[in-house]
């Protein structure tokens, strides 16, 4: 049976590496010497990367039988897509894996800002509570409803990382330190 090599650009979980090693010969980029990698180049048919390490043109050129580059992240920045297209190499990645988590974090940060959570934490940790009271914040439920609606629309439309003008304007109008 022909050896099928998979070049991992970064460590994966032990479980994933064990499962892959049952089916393929794994080459670990972080452990293998460049000269040794060149010796096995003909057997490597897949590259598994991440947002930080992918497959540049030099690596793709070194692997004559490469068929697929897979990124274990939502970004393709580190993969030479033009070179992959020229060579007919499939490219896969994991888009939207953290979309819900990013939205959750955005809501958390908005609430923390509006309710001055970090400021209150510093107030308590620095012992300032012994000298004076911490002023209460205002209610923000109406603003939060607007934010949640804007974020849901944003995620549903999948316009990742593009500015949301109504959302930004709403934040600027409701958070004092952002007002111009």
Our measurement of the CA-to-CA distance between the termini, rounded to an integer number of angstroms, reads: 68 Å
Overall pLDDT: 80
- What is the domain tally? 2
Uncertain residue ranges: 158-180
Number of helices: 8
The CATH class of the largest domain turns out to be Alpha Beta
CATH architecture of the largest domain: 3-Layer(aba) Sandwich
Strand content: 5-15%
Biggest sheet character: 5 strands, parallel
Radius of gyration, CA atoms, in whole angstroms:
24 Å
- Percent helix, as a range, is 40-55%
Question: CATH homologous superfamily of the largest domain, by name?
Answer: NAD(P)-binding Rossmann-like Domain
Structural class: alpha/beta
The gross shape turns out to be: elongated
The fold-level CATH name of the largest domain is: Rossmann fold
Helix and strand element order: EHEHEHEHEHHHH
Side by side, the strands of the main sheet go 2-1-3-4-5
* Number of strand segments: 5
GO cellular component, one term: cytosol
Domain D-isomer specific 2-hydroxyacid dehydrogenase catalytic: 6-148
Protein name: D-isomer specific 2-hydroxyacid dehydrogenase catalytic domain-containing protein
Keywords: Oxidoreductase
Question: What are the main properties of this structure?
Answer:
180 residues, alpha/beta, Rossmann fold, 5-stranded parallel beta sheet, oxidoreductase, D-isomer_2-hydroxyacid_DH
Descriptive report:
This protein has 180 residues and is of the alpha/beta class. Helices cover 45% and strands 12% of the residues. A five-stranded parallel β-sheet has the order 2-1-3-4-5, with helices on both faces. The radius of gyration is 24 Å and the shape is elongated.
């Amino acid at each position: 049976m022909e050896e099928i090599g998979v070049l991992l650009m970064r460590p994966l979980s032990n479980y994933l590496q064990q499962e892959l090693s049952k089916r393929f010969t794994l080459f670990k980029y972080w452990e293998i010497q460049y000269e040794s990698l060149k010796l096995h180049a003909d057997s490597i048919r897949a590259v598994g990367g991440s947002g930080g390490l992918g497959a540049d043109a030099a690596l793709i050129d070194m692997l004559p039988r490469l068929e697929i580059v897979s990124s274990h992240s939502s970004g393709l920045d580190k993969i030479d897509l033009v070179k992959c297209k020229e060579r007919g190499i499939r490219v896969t990645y994991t888009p939207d894996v953290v979309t819900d988590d990013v939205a959750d974090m955005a809501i958390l940060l908005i609430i923390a800002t509006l309710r001055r959570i970090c400021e209150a934490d510093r107030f308590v940790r620095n012992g300032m509570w012994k000298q004076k009271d911490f002023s209460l914040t205002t209610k923000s439920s109406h603003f939060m409803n607007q934010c949640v609606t804007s974020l849901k629309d944003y995620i549903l439309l999948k316009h990742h990382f593009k500015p949301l003008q109504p959302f930004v304007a709403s934040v600027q109008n409701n958070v004092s330190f952002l007002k111009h």
